[in-house]
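not sure who needs this but someone in the group chat was asking about Carbon-monoxide dehydrogenase medium subunit from Amycolatopsis sacchari so here u go. i didnt clean anything up, its just raw.
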Amino acid sequence: MKAAPFAYSRPSTVDEAVAELTRSDGGGKVISGGQSLVPVLAMRLARPDVLVDINAIPGLDRIERGDGYAKLGATVRQRTVERDPVSSEVPLLGLALPWVGHRELRSRGTVCGSLAHADPAAELPAVACCLDASLTLAGPSGTRRVAAREFFAGAMMTALGPDELLTAVRFPSALPGDGFGFAEIARRHGDFALAGVAVHVRGEGVTLTGFGISDRPVTRAVALDEVTPELLDEMVDTDGDAHASRDYRRRLFRVLARREIDRATRKARNDDR
């Protein structure tokens, strides 16, 4: 199949992009890398009136470092982050990115694009929620920041308004004594996960985020000794599908979560053998 007809706009500023989205009255769609959007268009699962290409907007391709955080602009490619020192400063990003599709897709796909697409089986939304990242949205009334854990509203549903643009995501940098773990199970490498987990251990506490197990990333922050099979099972609330049942995903998630919590704990205690 081919995409339905659409208009094309290539603004040179964020304000112009927002104005174009506002004029489209809900019929606009932002494109940056296009690795998620283009297949959806080709299958006619989305039929926007206009595509707003943000690649010509200066500054959105920057990686900025501040006091305790790293900020990625909307057009920063996943492969750029993978090869940049920022993947060491935010280790969970470095652990997760090799699992995102394939290298060729990561060379065009963007971190913010994956967040805005909000596939419930995608890796980067889970990383953002696990680390409590914040997202910057630009709209007609100016900019606002939204916590990642409040951004995802359901399968491919977010807090982004139809006239808003996701311009950046800000991840906290790791602190001494932090430990991280990341793993997923998929039918083939590059496929979306049947179940996956992102883990952050700090002191005696752990934050774990599951993906592929619900209609959005599922996050729990608890003490290490509070991670029980019952807690892990409760996090998996999908009804299952043709690829895996709920019970099978629960078994996968239990194994992945326990293994990565143990790994992250060893790293946090400088005992990763």
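also The chain has a mean pLDDT of 94. if thats useful
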